DNA sequence: CTCGATGATTGCTT
DNA sequence: AAGCAATCATCGAG
């Protein structure tokens, strides 16, 4: 700053605070006065340029010497004390006392929001926490979807810009403050400037810069809000589950038709198998139950299909189990442990007394897997029997109910 | 483009 | 908090 300030002083004798700098070198009046003629103006500019070019160390030294001369003037102390007196009387120095304004509520709001969104908080956790919160609000807490990472990337971009700008402002503020303080200190030798006044000036500068910072914070908040709304909107865009996932869910639903309310553990397992979230599983079951109930006829075919499917699995499992019990020695019961009874629907220990149709089943506490299989088979039988008249019979289901069911009954 | 299917959301009830 | 019912919004086949 030094060089620049010196040139400023040399040129106009006016500093940034608007005070005349003592000892500054005044420019001689330009030659061509109002410069209506081109030549005259050219001449003026030429003169000014010349002046600038001739500001040499020598002329600066001259100015410095003048300043020094003024400072050492015999009248200086007297004049200085008079100035001090006048100042005290006019109360100029007291004005600095009414500072300390309370924190701006709007600024606090902005700060809180930036902190909550993870823009101004600690580096790592904040951003992802906000993203996770948004994801949780949208019903998929652990979803690592494209939108999620996109959101995080954009947020960190905003964060980076915010911090860079903030740093720039702070640096500029500090630089300017030092600049002004130096000037004031310099001037305090020739006119009375109390430390309080310097402090006040610094406060003014800080306030100016903090108003700029507030604008930055405000626009950052706006950017985050826009990003967030876009992100949430994007999450609303649904994607159909994979065929495999739908199959797994349907299998569970129809094999637990008597009580299609998976436990939390079952939901978690299904979620894992289907690569979806637990809340998506809950949504799916909620939708399925209500839609099934609303239009059982429409879902009959699907129900039969899945029940038959599960029945085949169950029958195979039972047959394998029976074979195991026959072929394996009783001392090695686990030798065929490749999951004979290890069906997906293993959480259903009790049968509910009432299914969605309002049919009541005779509930009995049995081994979970076997119970589930019986459940499925019962369904096949009841469905094929009940809808044979309407559908003209379902050959697959009928055959299954005739053959597999008897197999199961026999093996049981 | 239409329309049924379907995942998600919302407001209410239990 | 979980579930129900209504509704929204999008997907995807025709």
From TrEMBL:
Residues 234-296 bind DNA. It holds the Pfam family PBC. It is found in: Nucleus. Keywords: DNA-binding, Homeobox, Nucleus, Transcription, Transcription regulation. It comes from the Eukaryota. Residues 232-295 form the Homeobox domain. InterPro entries: HD, Homeobox_CS, Homeodomain-like_sf, KN_HD, PBX_PBC_dom, TALE_homeobox. Residues 40-233 form the PBC domain. One of its GO terms (molecular function) is DNA binding. One of its GO terms (cellular component) is nucleus. The keyword DNA-binding applies. Belongs to the TALE/PBX homeobox family. This is Pre-B-cell leukemia transcription factor 3. The lineage of its organism: Eukaryota, Metazoa, Chordata, Craniata, Vertebrata.
